[in-house]
Amino acid sequence: MSTVFDALRLSTVSLDVAAAQRGTPQDIARRQQTRLAALLESTLRGSRLYRSLWPAGTTPNTALHQLPVVTRAQLMANFNDWVTDPQLQLDALRAFTADPNRIGEPWLGRYMVWESSGTSGQPGIFVQDAQAMAVYDALEALRRSPPPKPLLSSWWDPLGLGERTAFIGAIDGHFASTVSVRRLCTLNPWLAHSTRSFSLLQPLGALVQALNAFAPTAIATYPTAAALLADEAARGALRIRPREIWTGGEYLAPGVRDHITRQLGGAVRNSYGASEFLSIGWECAHGQMHVNADWVILEPVDEHLRPVPAGHAASSVLLTNLANHVQPLVRYALGDQITVHTERCRCGSPLPVVQVQGRHDEPLVMCGPDGRRVTLLPLALSTVLEDKAGVFDFYLRQIDACTLELQLPLEGEAGHQALARCCAELQSFARAMGLGAIEVRGKLGQRTPRGRSGKACRIVACAKT
């Protein structure tokens, strides 16, 4: 299977990424402004939606803050007018992403496509061309900070041919991480023999057994999943000792990081990314999160979308993707809460440092029929409700060790049908995870609770006593 890759573009971008990393903050700002002007020019030329939204007289040199904020729901509702290639049609792309057999397959031979979760109340579909993928590839390859390897290991295996990487996530959907792993293995066939994907939706015992058999030297997963694996290592069930644990997609609390490091034994490296821009930030050897500001603009704002000064926590953040001209994202309400720091990092990077406080969905610890504790991961639960039941706006609250309460904003017959699907899928998933019967109480006509950031905390554990 072919994939979206342009060696010349990658070489050009890689040289620039490497040069920018050795430059100054002023160099980063100049690159950012040049790329913003190019993005605005192509968007004015190709996107009917943005032309209708932007003030009359907008030019490539218009200041970013003068343009309106856009949301996912707004863009998805006008998808065919949003994109700059008329061959990209939403109905066809939805049919494509509904087929798990086509994960990682190029659309029209020249686009990578992935879907996002429904955290904001509606799933999104995001299309990347060769230029955008070259940027993501270069940022991932050149700016991630791998932990140091033991000298003997580096001497015996300088090319890393003995590495075995395990990706652990929701592998049956067209999600950015899953598509990226498939694409990477297609581009580098030798990686297909040393990289395996493991589903978070399988019972924990089966996952632990599969990881023990594979014995990965590196793990890529979500913080809550890594913490769960650390629990299994602590009780002696998981017997792997990876040298590297790459986490992303969720908030990584300091205590969770310490627990993962202590029990799994490897160095933890966290990253910050989204479906809207795959490689927003990377963590340096000093543990600081750096934003790839030469290719993405983040504007921290308060609850009224007013700018928030550096050093203060924002209620939300607006994202502008400078790499993707086929599906422009300009002042897009991402919803994450971040704090931008003013001081430069000791690592010497000219890129700004941010503290990210992302999604706060919680793992649910339930009680099995034999009294054994079973942890249901938030990513797995949201995937079950979104992919299996087709519900994206929900609030799942744990009442006790055997009972969940599911709130949906829907009402009437549609609400009752959606609630029945959700309850059936949750109970089926619980049985598959070894819980046996659980009670799922439903409430209709309930708005999903949201924090000040505007992002929903959709899965909440019961209070510890």
Automatic annotation (TrEMBL):
<keyword id="KW-0436">Ligase</keyword>
<dbReference type="InterPro" id="IPR042099">
    <property type="entry name" value="ANL_N_sf"/>
</dbReference>
<dbReference type="GO" id="GO:0016874">
    <property type="term" value="F:ligase activity"/>
</dbReference>
<dbReference type="InterPro" id="IPR053158">
    <property type="entry name" value="CapK_Type1_Caps_Biosynth"/>
</dbReference>
<protein>
    <submittedName>
        <fullName>Phenylacetate--CoA ligase family protein</fullName>
    </submittedName>
</protein>
